[in-house]
Design goal:
By secondary structure, the chain is α+β, with helices and mostly antiparallel strands. The chain has helices at about 5-25, 30-50, 60-90, 105-120, 145-165, 170-175; strands at about 55-60, 95-100, 125-130, 135-140, 165-170.
C-alpha cells in the first residue's frame, strides 16, 4: 500500500474518532448533532493540521498475548515492591530520573511504551523528547546506579515486547534498510 493511501486512511480514521468523541460528549446522536460534528471535524482539520496517526502494519497475536502477560506480571511485581516499601520503609524510598533512548522510531510504539510504564506503580513518564526518541522517567525505588540501569532495562524490555508484537510502518521501513538482524 502506498504512502498516500495510508495517509488518507489514517486521516479518515482520526476523523471518525473525533466524530465519535463529539457524539459521546453530547450523549446522544441526532441528525443536527451529526451534521454539526462533521462540520466541527472539518474545521479542526483545516485549522489545526493534525498529524498523521501512525498505523500498525501487522499485529502478531502470540507476541501480543505474550506482551500482555508480561505487562500483567510487571504490574504485579511493581505493585508488590512499591507496597512493601510504602509499608516498611516509607521515608527511605528514593527515586531517580532515568533517561532511556528508545530504539523504535514509531510514535505509536513510543506512546504504547509511555502508557505502559506510567500505568505501573513506581514509574512515571516525566519528559518525552519525541524528536530524539528519548524518554525521561521517574523510577522508584532507585538507590544505586544498578537500580537505575534496571529501571532503564525494564523500559527497553517493554519497548522490545511491543515492537515484537506490533509492526509499524516506521519500524518495518527501518528493518528493510538494515542488515536484517533482530534489534
Amino acid at each position: 500500500m502506498n504512502t498516500a493511501v495510508r495517509r488518507l486512511g489514517s486521516r479518515l480514521a482520526m476523523a471518525l474518532w473525533l466524530f465519535a468523541v463529539w457524539l459521546m460528549l453530547w450523549g446522544r446522536a441526532t441528525a443536527l448533532l451529526a451534521v454539526g460534528g462533521v462540520i466541527v471535524v472539518a474545521l479542526v482539520y483545516v485549522v489545526s493540521r493534525l498529524p498523521v496517526v501512525p498505523t500498525v502494519r501487522r499485529v502478531r497475536p502470540l507476541w501480543f498475548a505474550a506482551a500482555l502477560l508480561e505487562f500483567a506480571w510487571d504490574l504485579l511485581v511493581s505493585s508488590l515492591v512499591i507496597g512493601w516499601h510504602a509499608l516498611h520503609r516509607p521515608r527511605q524510598v528514593r527515586g531517580a530520573i532515568v533517561e532511556v533512548e528508545a530504539r523504535t522510531r514509531s510514535e505509536l510504539i513510543l506512546l504504547a511504551v509511555t502508557t505502559s510504564i506510567s500505568l505501573r506503580p513506581g514509574t512515571l513518564l516525566v519528559d518525552p523528547d519525541w524528536d530524539r526518541h528519548v524518554l525521561r522517567i521517574h523510577a522508584m525505588p532507585v538507590r544505586s546506579r544498578q537500580e537505575a540501569d534496571a529501571a532503564r532495562n525494564g523500559v527497553l524490555r517493554t519497548e522490545y515486547r511491543l515492537m515484537r508484537a506490533l509492526m509499524t510502518s516506521e519500524d518495518m521501513s527501518e528493518q528493510d534498510g538494515s542488515t536484517g538482524e533482530d534489534r
